[in-house]
Amino acid sequence: MKIEEAKKELVQNWGVLGSQWGINRTMSQIHALLLVSEKPLSTEDVMNELTISRGNAHTNLKDLVEWGLLNKTIISGDRKEYFEAEKDVWKIAVTVAKERKRRELEPMLKAIQKLDDELEGKSEEALKFHKLLKDIQQIGAQADMLINFMGKVENNSFANKLLKLVK
Amino acid sequence: MKIEEAKKELVQNWGVLGSQWGINRTMSQIHALLLVSEKPLSTEDVMNELTISRGNAHTNLKDLVEWGLLNKTIISGDRKEYFEAEKDVWKIAVTVAKERKRRELEPMLKAIQKLDDELEGKSEEALKFHKLLKDIQQIGAQADMLINFMGKVENNSFANKLLKLVK
DNA sequence: TTATATTTTCAATTTTTTCTGAATTTACAA
DNA sequence: TTGTAAATTCAGAAAAAATTGAAAATATAA
After folding, report:
1. Is residue A167 scored above 80 in pLDDT?
2. How far is the CA of A79 from the C1' of C6 (A)?
3. Contact status, residue A104 vs residue A120, Cβ threshold 8 Å
4. Exposure check for chain A: N or C terminus, fewer CB within 10 A?
């Protein structure tokens, strides 16, 4: 298989995976496209590569920058903006984990805390429900620790420690 | 806040979280409903609690059983099927992680393996792309180890080891 | 400045996903 | 068996999400 074809397939697969995990397919595809691109691409390049509209390309590029997965770059003598992706897959994983925690998990955990604070009654049912809320929070806290740890170490260091942990 | 109201809110929040992570909102809500329910519920109960149609309730209950998050139970002298949820939040987390890995991550990793196997050329570009594929696979392998480990230990044991790891 | 290239916005449209509800099938008690 | 309650299916409807494309705003080189 030619490299161009292989890259196209990766972009497709990445798009599918994203959509299964609640991330807009185009956004994942743009991310993959820039991940495999040797050089920064302009909005126009992205439009052409993925055959999508200007508005769509623009919105998703902007979102990816907000996620911290892309950077804007300037090419001197060129008026256009260019985008390039973080290429370190470990860093990408950490960034995505942190962002999803911040955007989606944390609001949920806050809501649970609020529920627990406001919960009335001392019935057995109330106690069970309280325990459920605490259990969910505990798992949230563990995920948090894990993500923080991931953010602090390099990939290989994480792999080593994980290996020891598993044994 | 009354317990019934608190439970309803949890069901709503759970639904939102699910939809953000690519899981149909109704499915998450049904799961939460059974998670906070003191007793098994029938399809009819679920329809009434969430004000959804029979078809919708049926399909999502079936899917939840396939995910391993619900069990069918029989109440003697009653012709209806009842459903009850696994209540151990740690086990739920492990089940969800395993299922998502099996259904979504593994197909992606297989596709990547295939791409790598079939990749032609020894150009610098090809080597870089090859490295990218390997890096993605490596992270997949780490996620796999982590999930397996989670499946083997209890929640508190995991928390302890994680704590040591982080230090 | 000014002309124009580029970016941004967003109402309307298209696509995808989810849901409904009635018809069909299946399972059970008598 | 037979009658009926419950489970299952699925075509069409509704809702939600994504996308388009053109108009407006902004930025830059000359």
Report:
1. no
2. 7
3. no
4. C
Q: Are B39 and B78 in contact (CB under 8 A)?
A: no
- As a whole number, mean pLDDT of residues B122-151 equals 95
Are A125 and B163 a contacting pair at CB < 8 A? no
Q: Name the 3-class secondary structure at B41.
A: strand
H-helix or E-strand spanning residue B76:
none
pLDDT digits (tens, 9 = 90+) for A85-119: 999 999 999 999 999 999 999 999 999 999 999 99
CA of B59 to C1' of D19 (A): 30
Single out the residue of B104, B36, B48 nearest to residue A126, CA to CA: B36
CB B98 within 8 A of CB B150: no
Which residues in chain B touch residue A19, judged by CB atoms under 8 angstroms apart? 22
pLDDT at A163 over 90: no
Which of A8, A102, A119, A160 is the best mutation test for B, with the most CBs of B within 10 A? A119
Radius of gyration of chain B (CA): 21
Alpha carbons B15 and B8: distance in angstroms, whole number: 11
